[in-house]
Design goal:
six-stranded mixed beta sheet, 1 helix, 10 strands
Length: 114
């Protein structure tokens, strides 16, 4: 399996927005459920959003109503639109195919200032 590549992170003020992208080549990525995770300093990595091949989505309670996950299968890309960002959203964000043994990307840093 190919390692996904995340991009789009940065520094934003509270209340701002960012759009993350996750790209990978190959049919494994386009045919399976993809998840966006995040890991804050000193905390465990957590799943914040996922999207199936058929575009059924799920969200962690902490981001529901603020984050939107979407995918473009033709481009093998999954997006995470993050609105109304809060300082507690500060973390490294990763995407991954939700299959056992699937590789992690290098992550993209999101920092939200108060």
């Amino acid at each position: 399996q190919v390692q996904p590549v995340e991009s789009g992170g940065g520094l934003v003020q509270a209340g701002g927005s960012l759009r993350l992208s996750c790209a990978a080549s190959g049919s494994t990525f386009s045919k399976n459920t993809i998840g966006w995770y995040r890991q804050a300093p000193g905390k465990q990595r957590e799943l914040v959003a996922s999207i199936t091949r058929g575009r059924t989505t799920n969200y962690a309670d902490s981001v529901k109503g603020r984050f939107t996950i979407s995918r473009d299968n033709a481009k093998n890309t999954v997006y995470l639109q993050m609105n109304n960002l809060k300082p507690e959203d500060t973390a490294v964000y990763y995407c991954r195919v939700l299959l056992s043994g699937a590789p992690w990307g290098q992550g993209t840093q999101v920092t939200v200032s108060s």
